[in-house]
Specification:
Blueprint: H1 2-20, E1 25-38, H2 59-79, H3 82-85, E2 91-97, H4 100-108, E3 117-121, E4 131-137, E5 141-149, E6 153-154, E7 161-162, E8 167-174, E9 177-185, H5 193-217, E10 223-228, H6 236-241, E11 244-245, E12 256-257, H7 260-265, E13 271-273, E14 276-278, E15 281-286, E16 300-307, E17 327-328, E18 331-332, E19 341-349
Parallel strand pairs: 1-2, 9-10, 11-12
Antiparallel strand pairs: 1-19, 2-4, 3-4, 5-8, 6-7, 8-9, 10-15, 12-15, 13-14, 16-19, 17-18
């Protein structure tokens, strides 16, 4: 009888003991967002920035539109990952920005200024002056090095080079771990998907080259590939050139995993155009950041998401149900971007 009572007491206490011994985790958000033509109001004679929507507006309306656009972009960035990480992203890749100046205005905005973001930006040779960049919370991420890789493309018709965005590589310490981030904005589908496909395949090949270079210094590096790829997870650039895997269970050492593949198969998207939906905005990871056994002794992918709260979606008009874009018909709509943001949570056990 005494043994039975002791067993019942242990049975009651066991759940409480298990709860008290639960592991504690550290979580960091890594995000990417295409900021849709975040250009300033100053005409740069060395770039074709006059083709940007803000420069098509009447001069007297530009300043107000610019600062509203900055505020809208900062609001979105401040909220990504907030639910679980309790702060804005530790690392943010951005595309479609004109220069460093617009990023400085962005991180000084009230939504972000207390987070003390740093900026890594290089001017790219893109004809319109569109660049990619990286923002990072200084308390979580410490850059070690950064460089850009030029994507050289040539017209088939006349052999002349045409200029597009560089690919940005940043290496740094996320807390106490070395990680590498490649920020991309691959060539558009101008002229049609099939005709423009080789340009994005070359962009994917450049990503592979960057990773191979990293391996010379960092065996089995932790690499996060992010960007607006202008391709879906099932297109040849991602599936055949990068050889990104759709399932964690298929990932072997040296492989790349694409968590967006399953999202695309389930009908999720980050943009829409002419009744087509696409998931061009993607974040992929190399094998050391993947675990199939829920082991988080070092940073591993916990979850990938699309950031698309209701306020970022058009509720009426020709773009109903699509991302609430900033520009339409030569005017500022007080929207956000024609893309949704994407993000991942990285998780590891606290020591």
């Amino acid at each position: 009888m005494k043994f039975l009572k002791l067993f019942l007491v242990l049975l009651i206490l066991l759940p409480f003991n298990s709860f008290s011994q639960k592991k504690k985790f550290q979580i960091r958000t890594v995000a990417f967002y295409n900021l849709e033509n975040l250009f300033d109001t100053i005409n740069d004679p060395e770039k074709l920035d006059e083709r940007s929507p803000i420069m098509e507006m009447k001069a007297k309306n530009r300043a107000k539109a610019y600062w509203n656009k900055i505020d809208n972009m900062a609001k979105v960035l401040s909220e990504i990952g907030l639910e679980k990480a309790k702060t804005s992203p530790a690392i943010i890749g951005v595309a479609e920005i004109e220069n460093r100046s617009v990023l400085e205005d962005l991180i000084k905005n009230d939504h972000l200024k207390k987070k003390h973001y740093g900026i890594i930006h290089y001017d790219s040779p893109d004809a319109r002056g569109i660049d990619v960049a990286l923002l990072y919370q200084k308390r979580y991420f410490k850059p070690i090095s950064s460089k850009t890789y030029e994507l050289k493309l040539y017209n088939k018709s006349d052999g002349k080079r045409y200029y597009t965005r560089d690919q940005l590589l940043v290496t740094g310490m996320l807390d106490d771990e070395v990680i590498h981030i490649i920020v991309n904005h691959w060539p558009s589908r101008r002229g049609g998907e099939q005709k423009s496909r080789p340009s994005r395949e070359k962009a994917a090949a450049l990503n592979k080259k960057i990773i191979e270079e990293l391996k010379e210094e960092y065996p089995n590096p932790k690499v996060i590939i992010m960007g607006d790829l202008n391709d879906d997870p099932i297109n040849t650039s991602v599936r055949k050139i990068l050889k990104a895997k759709a399932k964690k269970s298929a990932v072997k050492e040296g492989d790349i995993y694409n968590p967006m593949d399953d999202m695309f198969r389930r009908g999720l998207s980050t943009l829409g155009y002419r009744d087509n939906i696409n998931l061009f905005d993607q974040i992929m990871l190399t094998s050391p950041l993947i675990t199939a056994k829920k082991e988080y002794t070092t940073y591993k992918l916990y979850k990938a998401n699309i950031f698309n709260p209701r306020y970022m979606t058009s509720k009426s008009g020709r773009y109903k149900g699509y991302p609430f874009r900033s520009w339409s018909g030569g005017r500022f709509t007080n929207g956000y971007s024609d893309h949704y943001a994407v993000y991942i949570y990285l998780l590891k056990e606290k020591k």
